[in-house]
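#struct-pred
JK: can someone run the complex with S-adenosylmethionine? inputs below
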Amino acid sequence: MRFIDKDIEDYCIEKSNQPSHYCSELETYTRENIPMSQMLVGKMEASFLGFLIKSLGVKKVLEIGTFTGYSALAMAEALPEDGSVTTLDINPETTAVAQKFWSKSRSANKINLHLGPALESLKQFSPGFDLVFIDADKENYYHYLIKCLELLGHKGVIVIDNVLWSGSVLKAPQTESTAGIQKLNDYVASRSDLYSTLLPIRDGMLLIKKDLK
Ligand SMILES: C[S@@+](CC[C@H](N)C(=O)[O-])C[C@H]1O[C@@H](n2cnc3c(N)ncnc32)[C@H](O)[C@@H]1O
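RT: done, structure tokens with the ligand placed:
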């Protein structure tokens, strides 16, 4: 489901800063060659993530869900030279595509890929991430959030994608993915120590801040 009229969305994208032509090439290749290419965040979300990175002075990004590497590359491009994107995925085939396209960009050296189940990979990191972007298997969203709240620096922000799941969150859950997203959204809303904003950008983006002082 599209929450924003296509012409309006296209106009917004046209008037926004967008990721580089390397990202556009990667987007085109993914849409033409890779199954489930709609999983890629696209230009509007990439622009929004770039805005957050630049306005919050982000240096360390953690991403759960690399796919073919579009959002990781877009975020790396928005970071300063000493910034880094640590990105986690379980799929060796799609991440091989990611690595091939990253290597064309001068931001490639900012990206570190960790292959394996994300809940396992997450155990090796220390707190201090400025931005966490969660965009992987929805069944684990709650568990990712709990771990990422530990890993987030004091001034950091967590962004979680697909939290409207094409509108299915409004109904009784028919799938584990919908149930996982509803559990996450309800949990975040119940925590008075978190400040959260759910925006209907694309398939829904939930922004969370933990340090309210
Ligand atoms: C929506 S896609 C990520 C899209 C990416 N952020 C982008 O914009 O290009 C979700 C990714 O999560 C990965 N994934 C699914 N289950 C996972 C798990 N348990 N651990 C790590 N990655 C997982 C999938 O392999 C898939 O590439």
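RT: quick notes.
Residues 6-209 form a domain with the Rossmann fold fold (CATH 3.40.50.150).
The longest helix spans residues 42-56.
JK: thanks, will look after standup
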